[in-house]
Design brief:
The protein has about 260 residues and is α/β, with parallel strands linked by helices. The protein is built from eleven helices and 15 strands. A hairpin with a 2-residue loop joins strand 2 and strand 3.
Length: about 260
């Protein structure tokens, strides 16, 4: 296989999975690890990838990389819909309790699935969110009790953050929290670029009786700048592909149930 062909395959895998590993590529392509390292060095020189320990990620996946809701909405949309529907099924039929839904395009699909429930089921629920788009979706069903977490709204994510949001969350103990994250890895756990958003997500994880993380596979093995919570704080992960070796082992070690959509 020519170098240009390897480069194309490497970029395709990064697009699909968010990250590539030197040893895995060397085995799959039947070349030496040194050859793959040279390939990755060349792609980094061309600003197409960013080298990380053991491999590479897409050039846009720096620890501070963050895109607006409108840009993220169409990305992996089918997977997000499946994840949202699978996560929503974790709420028992006839459930009488409180649910917290974090801001995010994947968590928004959980809300979209939830509001399709019959009126008599929605009447038993209290749903809390810090996301303006999610709150608008929930408020359209008058049978549902919707509670808004207030604070400074980040334009990039349409999420309420800051001291007011943290004060409100500290006084709440919801039965179930659905959390979104920019990255999930074996070593760093859950992470996101913005410290204020990380603080809110951390407070959600601390307060909820049960924590469910909803992410597509592009977030696997990614570390954003700011830590949210350890995997030991998570009860279940709802996603579209089986986690890879290191993350899968860490999830098992921390008794995190993996639910495939």
């Amino acid at each position: 296989m020519y170098a240009t062909e390897r480069h194309a395959l490497i970029l395709e895998r990064i697009t699909q999975h968010g990250k590539v590993a030197v040893r895995e590529l060397a085995s799959d392509l039947d070349v030496t690890p040194e050859t793959i390292r040279r390939d990755l060095d060349q792609l980094e020189l061309e600003s197409l990838v960013r080298r990380v320990h053991g491999g590479a990620v897409g050039n846009s996946l720096g620890s501070l990389a963050e895109t607006a809701v409108a840009e993220r909405q169409p990305l992996n949309h089918d997977a997000k819909v499946r994840i949202g529907e699978a996560a929503e099924r974790l709420i028992p039929r006839g459930f009488n309790g409180s649910i917290l839904i974090d801001a995010g395009t994947t968590t928004a699909e959980i809300a979209a699935a939830l509001v399709r429930r019959p009126a008599d089921e929605l009447a038993k629920l209290q749903v809390i969110s810090n996301s303006l788009p999610i709150l608008a979706l929930l408020a359209a069903r008058s049978e549902l009790t919707t509670i808004a977490i207030g604070g400074r709204v980040r334009g990039l994510t349409s999420a309420a953050v800051g001291p007011n949001a943290l004060t409100q969350l500290a006084a709440l103990r919801p039965d179930l929290a659905f959390i979104g994250t920019n990255g999930i890895s074996a070593e760093f756990g859950l992470s996101t670029p913005d410290p204020d958003e990380a603080a809110v997500k951390s407070a959600m994880c601390r307060g909820a009786r049960r924590v469910v993380v909803a992410v597509d596979a592009s977030k696997f093995d990614q570390d954003a700048l700011t830590h949210i919570a350890a995997l030991s704080s998570v009860d279940a992960l709802v996603t579209d592909q089986p986690p890879r070796t290191a993350l899968a082992a860490a999830l098992t070690e921390n008794d995190v149930e993996a639910v495939l959509a």
